[in-house]
Design brief:
Blueprint lengths: L2 E6 L6 H12 L3 E3 L4 H7 L5 H17 L4 E5 L4 H13 L3 E8 L2 H9 L12 H10 L9 E4 L5 H11 L3
Parallel strand pairs: 1-3, 1-4, 2-3, 4-5
């Protein structure tokens, strides 16, 4: 049974770094919301969760049509995005593995301010992080695995995630 590994967490938890390691080690395609930066630039907005969900769903469905294992990465605090992907995985008879990365606030602030040179749509300041965190509460997803990235290297986080994969 193919697998959809759904990796989420607030900005600064290490999703992108860990997904790069998993992509390298597993040879799985990565579906990351920032792959749609050209779309966000065209419409002049990046805070459009319904559009992002739809784009991710269409690409995930294409991967599932091909029966490919893949990693979906999303900084969503909303449970609806996860339910949507789990529903799709059920329809395609995929193993759905949700993982949420966490880190203390001070660590998040340090990490996001180090990435000032990246996509204009990524959070790169403490103020933007605060706005994001205060905009909506994070909802836990039943059965998701939670990994605190504070004292782990990205390789260790990726290793813990690989241990969760079906054999």
């Amino acid at each position: 049974m193919p697998t959809c590994l759904y990796l989420r967490g607030v900005p600064g938890t290490g999703k992108r770094t860990v997904s790069d390691i998993l992509e390298r080690d597993l040879k799985w395609p990565v579906l990351w919301c920032h792959h749609f930066d050209a779309t966000y630039k065209a419409i002049g907005e990046h805070r459009c969760p319904v559009l992002t969900d739809e784009l991710m769903r269409v690409v995930a469905e294409h991967l599932m049509d091909d029966g490919r294992d893949f990693l979906a990465v999303r900084p969503s605090r909303s449970i609806d995005s996860i339910w949507s992907m789990e529903y799709l995985a059920d329809q395609y008879l995929y193993t759905f593995l949700p993982v949420r990365l966490t880190a203390p606030y001070a660590t998040l602030c340090t990490r996001v301010t180090r990435r000032w040179h990246e996509s204009e749509f990524r959070i790169t300041t403490k103020e933007a992080l605060d706005e994001y965190l205060n905009a909506r509460p994070e909802t836990e997803f039943p059965g998701e695995h939670v990994i605190d990235t504070e004292r782990l290297t990205p390789e260790q986080v990726a290793g813990r995630i690989k241990e969760l994969l079906p054999k």
